[in-house]
Design goal:
The structure holds 2 protein chains of 2 kinds.
Chain A: H1 7-10, H2 15-36, H3 39-44, H4 72-96, H5 103-127, H6 146-167, H7 174-198, H8 217-227
Helix pairs in contact in A: 4-5, 4-6, 5-7, 6-7
Chain B: H1 16-22, H2 24-34, H3 37-55, H4 57-60, H5 77-102, H6 107-133, H7 151-172, H8 179-203, H9 219-226
Helix pairs in contact in B: 1-2, 2-3, 3-6, 3-8, 5-6, 5-7, 6-8, 7-8, 7-9
Classes of the chains: A mainly alpha, B mainly alpha.
Chain lengths: 231, 231
């Protein structure tokens, strides 16, 4: 049942590691291996997004995002914004790459690119001057290779679903609860469709079965960290 | 359909509820993974709810008569919302049963529809248990009728029904008082969205009909929409 992004899951043939190795040499490779292969250790060892304060893991009482994102609802919205930045950047890159995708996958990419950019815009507007800045991303070829794009998109979308459902209970402002659930719905729609495109048997439509499992911020951030997508 | 489905008779795929109830190891793993008070209490809530309904299955299986003999809360607040959701899930479950019995879809799509139906049945079981956990009386299963005459009609109707379910849960998210009930509703809600979006691919409609932000539907809108399906 443990659910996390790691390189073994999104990088079946080692392409991410090879790309990372080529770019950054052995240090990068061993970091990625540590983050991905030894994911459990990295999580308990306090691995967090590099954009965040190291105190992140202290703030897991209710699975909330770490204090570095801001207090209360601002923190939760900034956490959501960071995940949306990641998704939007991933899809913007994939769109620009003009990948050789199936017609259905092209349609999917068009919709998700539009939706995730709108989620970013919405959250930035809601946060105003308190909005977190976008981290810098390096997708290591995961959005410029058709096969890796498909796999990674599925992981990102499911992580989005579980991240939003993990925070819905922590939000105090009713309007933001509604907004978060509205976005959650759309992430779930994306996740199921990419799941079906990747596995026509339909098993990945609802990978948790009849009930989606919420994820704490620390789990989500550890999973994101493990991808090495945030530099 | 001569008697109301009980916890025992409702088909339960190996979803999270069943796993949590039946498997000690999975339960420990889930609670450890969830880690947060919110998620942990969701697990505890689901377990407690299912546990109590099992113990009292013989009496609890009695249909909810029009006389509300239980606590006053059964007609208001979270219990009312849960019973509303339960009624919709009863209809969805009945719909899939009829669709599968009609046999318009075989193979991959057929098994997809079957798995959706099983997940709806799990939602029914969870919602009934949740109502009882709150001291309420579960709503009775309504008699249902659906215009099922050909495959296209079935797929279109499935898409309509699932979209309705997703927007109905969304419409209640701001009104639910108890965090545990909200957590349960969200865990179900995103699965409804998953069903709706994958069915959209089948009938060649938008996977996100409301765009980047899913729109809620209020109770009166939803009830008016399902009215034709009540026998």
């Amino acid at each position: 049942m443990t659910y996390q992004i790691n390189l073994d899951e999104v990088d079946a043939d080692g392409a991410i590691r090879e790309a990372a190795d080529a770019v950054s040499g052995d240090t990068r490779l061993s970091f990625l291996k540590k983050a991905g292969v030894a994911g459990g250790a990295a999580m308990s060892g306090g691995a967090v997004l590099s954009a965040l304060a190291p105190s992140a893991f202290a703030a897991t009482q209710h699975g909330r995002p770490p204090a570095s994102f801001g207090k209360g609802d601002v923190g939760i919205l900034n956490y959501a914004l960071t995940l949306e930045y990641l998704e939007a950047a991933f899809y913007n890159g994939a769109t620009a790459a003009n990948l050789p995708l199936s017609a259905q996958a092209v349609a999917f990419l068009k919709i998700v690119t539009e939706d995730e950019n709108k989620h970013v815009a919405f959250l930035k507007k809601a946060l105003g001057s308190k909005a977190a800045k976008s981290p810098k991303f390096d997708f290591k070829g995961a959005n410029t290779n058709a096969e890796m794009f498909m796999k990674t998109a599925q992981v990102l979308e499911n992580t989005g679903v579980h991240a939003y459902s993990g925070q819905a209970l922590n939000i105090k402002t009713p309007a933001y609860v509604k907004a978060a659930v509205s976005i959650l719905t759309v992430e779930a729609r994306h996740a199921s469709v990419i799941g079906l495109l990747n596995d026509p048997s339909g098993k990945e439509i609802a990978p948790n079965g009849p009930f989606d499992t919420p994820l704490t911020a620390s789990k989500v951030l550890a999973a994101v960290k493990a991808t090495g997508f945030i530099v | 359909m001569s008697s109301p489905p009980t916890e025992e008779s409702a088909p339960q795929p190996a979803g999270i509820v069943e796993r949590l109830v039946r498997d000690d190891l999975d339960r420990k793993r889930f609670l450890k993974m969830a880690g947060s008070a919110g998620a942990a209490s969701f697990g505890a809530f689901v377990m407690a709810a299912c546990g109590s309904s099992k113990k009292t299955a013989s009496t609890a299986a009695a249909p909810a008569a029009s006389s509300s003999t239980s606590s006053a809360s059964s007609a208001t607040g979270d219990v009312a919302i849960l019973n509303y959701a339960l009624t919709l899930e009863y209809l969805e479950t009945a719909f899939y049963e009829k669709v599968i019995a009609a046999g318009f879809y075989k193979g991959k799509v057929g098994s997809l529809l079957k798995s959706f139906g099983q997940q709806e049945a799990s939602h029914v079981a969870a919602l009934k248990a949740a109502v009882m956990k709150l001291g309420g009386t579960p709503a009775a299963q309504p008699a249902a009728k659906f215009p099922i005459e050909n495959a296209t009609q079935v797929a279109e109707l499935a898409y309509t029904v699932e979209n309705l379910g997703a927007s109905a849960y969304l419409g209640q998210a701001g009104a639910i008082k108890s965090p545990e009930v909200l957590a349960s509703a969200l865990a179900i809600h995103s699965v409804e969205a998953r069903h709706a979006a994958t069915l959209a691919t089948l009938v060649k409609k938008s996977i996100t009909p409301d765009g980047a932000f899913a729109k809620p539907a209020d109770m009166s809108t939803v009830l008016a929409a399902v009215k034709p399906f009540l026998a």
